[in-house]
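User: Hello! I'm new to structural biology and keep hearing that structure can be predicted from sequence alone. Could you demonstrate with Dihydrodipicolinate synthase family protein? Please show me the input and the output so I can see what each looks like.

Assistant: Of course. The first part below is the input, the amino acid sequence of Dihydrodipicolinate synthase family protein. The second part is the output, the predicted structure written as tokens.
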Amino acid sequence: MTATFETQRAALAEVVAIPVTPFAEDGTIDRDAHRALLRRLVDGGVRTLTPNGNTGEFYALTPEERRTITELTVEEAGDRAAVLVGVGHDVPTAVASARHARALGAPMVMVHQPVHPYVSEGGWVDYHRAIAEAVPELGVVPYIRNPLLAGSRLAELADACPNVIGVKYAVPDAARFASFARDAGLERFVWVAGLAEPYAPSYFSAGATGFTSGLVNVAPAVSLDMIEALRCGDYPAAMKVWERIRRFEELRAADASANNVTVVKEALSSLGLCRRDVRPPSRPLTADERSEVAAIAAGWSL
């Protein structure tokens, strides 16, 4: 792998935070709250930020809003954190977003899984290749949720595009991940456990060196405790963190992750950090759910 991307590769072997997008009472982006949340993450020790990720409600944002989120994140990150900008939708839209990220100085883009009812493996390669070739200076990280995709296809993509340097792997199957990573080239890419803290221990045991997190919005120190334990190979310590966050993550994962973002925003709201508002197709929590989330957040050392 060329030395050009070593800094980006190192930034992926971290807690890769997926910041929420806070909304004001009128439904627009709350810029002040967003800046404050980003500063809280960076001040808390987080070194990699992903604007326009799924926890940021990527698919519920307009193109202009996605650009705004990218701009705010790059500004707040400064030289203290790397920025991995989420891009996606149709190829021209994804390319335009990637070029916007490049113009702002972001070093990497994460390509959301193609949203299409008919995705062929060859078409998956073509989609990512078109984006990666448009921004050869940037590190490119495919976000993989398709359990049928073969690891050899990722290798094929990287053969054509050496700026494909990492993978956010989000198939909930640790054995499948281990096979996929080895078929693609375990040492060739930085492997990011894309299903956050609940899957991080099992994915690290199979070769991941970073993990994404939405929980980090609420409790940066908790997420950092887990990655430090995993880096040391101290799986009992990592599982103690896992036990602390288990119920919170179960609430996020319930009903096919229907409340994935809502639970995070509810916790932030209970701490007075932003409003709880989410956009459809997400929904607010019930009163009982709100109480449980608030109690969990209050029990963490924040």
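User: So the tokens describe the shape?

Assistant: Right, they're a compact way of writing down the 3D structure. Reading them back into a model, for example: The mean pLDDT is 96.
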